[in-house]
Amino acid sequence: MQFPQVNYTDQIAPQLLAEALHNIGFVVLSDHPIDAQLISDVYTEWAEFFNSPTKTLYTFKPEIQAGYFPFQTETAKGYSQPDLKEFFHLYKSHNLPKGMSDRSWQLFQSLINLGEELLSWIESVSPDVVRDNLTMSLEGMIKNSQENLLRILHYPPLTSEYTDGAIRAAAHEDINLITLLPAATATGLQVLDNFGVWHDVPSNLGDIVINVGDMLQLATGGYYRSTTHRVINGESAHISRYSMPMFLHARPEVVLSGTKTAREYLQERLREIGLIK
């Protein structure tokens, strides 16, 4: 499969991006306005955090879902073995760990700004029947949302003790509207095509991977596809891998489809992956 790539500056970028998200649910965006050095600096700061013993001081509380999630906390829907990762949930209403700069907040806001623009692109070129069935504009769904989440992930180097079939992130779909993922520090991300074949997602410094989440699939009646993806152990399993997807979430009261609100849908999915009871 030729993985779709779209240049942000292309005159027909909105059409190309929407077409890719309709067909396979994933696309790589290049030449976007987010500074590559900012992304690199944020990765460096969080690598220091995950390698510090003080990280456990920020362990999350289930009712808040913000903070540090220890290694093997999350299990993908339908799986019995937990993922081989640790991560930190950063919401606008919560604080960074002590001593960190505001670079993470700069990146956070830059990704939201870009995400709002991409959602407006998607809606502007969608078929009339898709736009007419939206309960409100896609960009409006995330406006001032406190649910927007920057998840900073660390996949530690793996040792021979992990022989039970667990992988860095088992096959899953995202919950939110769209995900913006600055290129990870190592390979491993794969996407499942329509024929059940896995394909490596390019991981070139400076690119951002965009993918559809279940909320957008639900809100558009399945027109945009929430595609299954995973992170395999692969050739880079012996080194740390960092990634930081920005999950753009509709505000809790937004009706996605029928009578189902974003809050109801999010709670349902969090229970399925074991982050809340």
Helix content: 25-40%
Low-confidence blocks of residues: none
Q: How many helical stretches?
A: 7
Domains, number: 1
Description:
- It is a single chain.
- The longest helix is centred in the middle third of the chain and has 22 residues, at 103-124.
- The chain starts with a strand and ends in a 5-residue tail after the last helix.
- By secondary structure, it is of the alpha+beta class.
- It has 7 helices and 15 strands.
- The radius of gyration is 18 Å and the shape is globular.
- The protein has a single domain (5-272), classed as Jelly Rolls.
- The strands form 3 sheets. Strands 1, 2, 3, 4, 5, 7, 10, 12 and 13 form a 9-stranded mixed beta sheet that branches. It has a 4-stranded antiparallel beta sheet with strand order 6-11-8-9, with no helix packed on it.
- It has helices spanning 13-23, 36-50, 103-124, 128-132, 138-142, 214-219, 262-272; strands at residues 5-7, 26-30, 67-69, 86-91, 149-155, 169-172, 178-182, 189-192, 198-200, 208-212, 229-231, 241-243, 246-248, 255-257, 260-261.
- β8 and β9 form a beta hairpin.
Outline the secondary-structure elements.
Layout lengths: L4 E3 L5 H11 L2 E5 L5 H15 L16 E3 L16 E6 L11 H22 L3 H5 L5 H5 L6 E7 L13 E4 L5 E5 L6 E4 L5 E3 L7 E5 L1 H6 L9 E3 L9 E3 L2 E3 L6 E3 L2 E2 H11 L5
Parallel strand pairs: 1-2
Antiparallel strand pairs: 2-10, 3-4, 4-5, 5-12, 5-13, 6-11, 7-10, 7-13, 8-9, 8-11, 14-15
Helix pairs in contact: 1-3, 2-3
